[in-house]
Each structure stands twice: as structure tokens, then as C-alpha cells.
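ESCALATION

Customer reports they have been waiting on this structure for their group meeting. Please prioritize. Original submission:
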Amino acid sequence: MRLKLLIFPFFALLSLVIIIGFMKPDFDSILEKKSAIANQQTVVDSADIIVKQVATLNSDLDLHSKAENILLTYLPRTLEQDSIIDAFNFTASQTGLVVSDIVFTKETVNTVSADDLGDTLATDPSSLDTQKVAPQTFIFTGTMTGPYEGMKTFFDRFTRINRFQNIILFSLEKGDAAPGSTVSSDSLKGTITVQYGYLKDKPVSSALNLAFLQKSEPFDFSPIDTLETRMAEIAPLGDAPSGKPNPFQ
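Update from on-call: job pushed to the front of the queue and completed.
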């Protein structure tokens, strides 16, 4: 009788262990799937926020299309060196100068370029908050000859073209007219060296972790207002000594 009483609890316990053994893998799988669903829901919620923020930013750009056009004009997505050459030649011809040389030089700058940043964002999208995108730059050097008054007018006009410019050098020196040359004896040789930049588009693999898209904030267009104010603040060249059309005479 005692043996029978012991056998029954033993088989009941064994059955319970077997049932648990069969159920536990399914239970673990359910927990894993539940966790995966929760993670996916977080991604969906983030995506909804980003979609709304993108719509907000697009609407903001539509309302400030003038500011957007100014920005894309002054800092284009490509080199656009042809537009610089055209502006240089046109301004020189309008001010009575003769263009003698044009040279472009590519710069190597130890900053975070758009290409490098795109590769970084592919593995760490949140790094956009700490990384600053630096435009790629190149150097333009133009040389021309002509009178001092023409040089002054040229400098005033060329430094106002619709492009961000870092004027590195503008030098004038007395030109040497060769025998039989049509160049006036009071002609000057002018050289201008300017740094230009451009910012290439670089798509990222995912926008889900870009912090600035997680905030319901419009664009800050105040730098455009500052730019428009400073467009008229370029200092002109000084006047030549009284009575001397060429200060080098």
C-alpha cells in the first residue's frame, strides 16, 4: 500500500516535469517574440515621429523658399566652377580689364567631409549631433591687367557674386608693358585668390536615429538674414592719391 502511494506522486511529478519541458521552449519563444514586437513598435513609433517632422520641415521650406534658394545658391551641391569663370570674365570685361590667367586648385582639408560623415552615419546615425559637416573646398586664382579704377570696380563687383567666398588675396602690382603692346603704361596687374566651397548630398542608410528628426522644430533661418545683411558690408578698395589714376606711378 505504501509503495502504491509513493508511485502515484512520483508519476504525477514526472508528468509535470515532462509537461514543463515541452512548454518551456514555446514559452521562451513567446517571450522573444513579444520582445521583438515591442522593439518593432518602438521603431514604428519613431518612424511616425520622423514622418511628421519631415512633413513639418517640408512645409517650412515651402514657406521660406527664398531663403532655401539663397542657401543653395551660395553653397551649391556641386563645384559649379563654370559659374565662377563666367562671373570672373564678365566682371573683368565690364570693368575694362583683360583676363590673362585662371587656375583652380583642389584643397585637402582635415575636416569631416560629407562623404566621410555619410559613412559614419551608416554605423552610428546619432553621431550627426556631434559631427559637423564641412564643405569641400577649392581655390580659384585669377589674373588680369588694366587701370586702377577698373581694378577697384572689379573688386567691388566680383566680391558680391552669389557664392560664399573667402578672399585670401587681392594684390596689385605695376604692369610691364612690352614694346608695341596695346596695354597702357599705367596698367596694373591684379591677382585675386579666393576659396570656394560646395556641399555634396550624402544619403544615410537610416533616419530613425537622427536626433534632429525626433524633434518637432522648424528650421532656423536666422543665418540667412545675417547673410543678407552682410552682403553689403564688403569694404571697397581705397581711392588712389589725388590726381594720380595709378597709385604706383
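Sent to customer with the following note: Helices lie at 2-63, 65-74, 81-94, 114-123, 148-158, 222-230.
Escalation resolved.
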